[in-house]
Amino acid sequence: MKTPHFAIIGAGTAGLATAILLAREGNNVTIFEQVDELSPVGAGLLLQPAGLAVFEHLGVLDEALTLGAKVTGLEGQLPDKRLLVNSHYHEASTNLYGLGIHRSTLCHVLTQKLSQYSSHITWRMNHTIERLEEHPNEIRLFGFNQNQKFDDCFDAVLIANGARSQLRPKAWVKVDQAYPWGAAWSIVPECLALNPQILHQFYDRSKIMMGILPTGAIPSEPEQRLASVFWSLPTAQLPTFLKDEQSKQTWLNQVSERWPDVAEWLKQILYNNQIQPKWLSAQYRDVVMTQFGQGRIGVIGDAAHAMSPQLGQGANMALLDAWAFSQSLQLAQKNQNIDWSLLWQHYHQHRRSSTQFYQFLSRLLTPLYQSDHWWAGGLRDLVFPWMYQIPYFRKEMAITVSGLKTGPFQQLDYQKIAQYCEKENVLNSKSESLPDY
Ligand SMILES: Cc1cc2nc3c(=O)[nH]c(=O)nc-3n(C[C@H](O)[C@H](O)[C@H](O)COP(=O)(O)OP(=O)(O)OC[C@H]3O[C@@H](n4cnc5c(N)ncnc54)[C@H](O)[C@@H]3O)c2cc1C
């Protein structure tokens, strides 16, 4: 059999992780990325244990740990100092933890790993893909590079070009809409007044929410520990956030009335000429698909299932997609051929229920933190403290945050994802019966 050649569109978390796994198994991969240099900007993010299991499988966990910030749990405070959310990974399983990481660090760790398989990788930076055509034995991609049109053929394509993808097959898209709320965010030096192993959140009803996430260091400045600050806002208000002195004062007063210690820290940052933090906006999309792949076309990462980052699962899901795709490919690569229908059957078996579970929960919970509904925050403040008193719910909440859930009563096995033995890492599921979709 000739070595399969995959095209991956988009060098984000999903695209890079998948490229490593495909190249490691001896496949050829061409990565198309629209920007001319990978220098990811964006708020830091929290990799949950499920994502870290994939990191272990990829062989990049140790490197990520040297730069990122180990996070042991999530604490969400109300204005009266009560903890509304108090979830710690050890409640799910003793050895679990999360990792706050800067996007450029995440990209650095993945591209470093990818460079080990360079003979199987072709980079096409500054190449934007506009459309694709599926033929019986190949996929043809059409795009442009510096105003020059090009087209190229591959055995299969993975669309990993993020939440705003225009390439995912329209017939598979059930929902594709913007959220009415987003967040302003900035990267700042770590807050020494707060526990550096905790993602801290602050809420007042469903209208005010702030997050402070330790994200560790970036490769070029390994000594400087950083944090990402998030401030939730309706999208219409994002462009004017902190644009003048008056709005800075109003914001600091809003925080100070509720959480004075944090306001003091923010004040020092805002008025420190050496730091001068830049505030940027993040807007979210909700994307639901009826299927993630068929034949020679697959959709992974945010392109397949973008959602509000309320549960902090997007990058984890992208990593789990990469893992599930490589497992499914190995299973379907039999008798000198790839059985595409078996591949997608297996992939959907792994990814559909988990994705549905987190998308459902994200839709349910997001309005409790980010909406104008008068009842949302009150309902949340009544129900959550009650739930946290019951050990069963505390544990379930920790497993959910860990990204390991595949349904209300099922979960993934961290070790099964993390393990990697060369040429023997196909899941022992070849004899399992596969459900029909
Ligand atoms: C404020 C905020 C906080 C978040 N916090 C968390 C968190 O704590 N934990 C977590 O797990 N997730 C978090 N997320 C979600 C996470 O960032 C995403 O889920 C994840 O980055 C998705 O990765 P991806 O590879 O699918 O897409 P992306 O990272 O968007 O990558 C897509 C790539 O495709 C390229 N591209 C686009 N179109 C084309 C084209 N036509 N041709 C070629 N290239 C193209 C883009 O340039 C880009 O490089 C957060 C998101 C936001 C906005």
From TrEMBL:
Note whether Ligase occurs among the keywords.
Answer: no
Domain FAD-binding residue range list: 7-353
Q: Which domain of life is it from?
A: Bacteria
Q: What single Pfam family name could you report for this chain, choosing any that match?
A: FAD_binding_3
- What keywords sit in the KW lines? Monooxygenase, Oxidoreductase
Please verify whether the record's keywords include Oxidoreductase: yes
Q: Which Gene3D superfamilies match?
A: FAD/NAD(P)-binding domain
The protein's name is FAD-binding domain-containing protein
- Please name the source species: Acinetobacter calcoaceticus DSM 30006 = CIP 81.8
Taxonomic lineage from the root: Bacteria, Pseudomonadati, Pseudomonadota, Gammaproteobacteria, Moraxellales
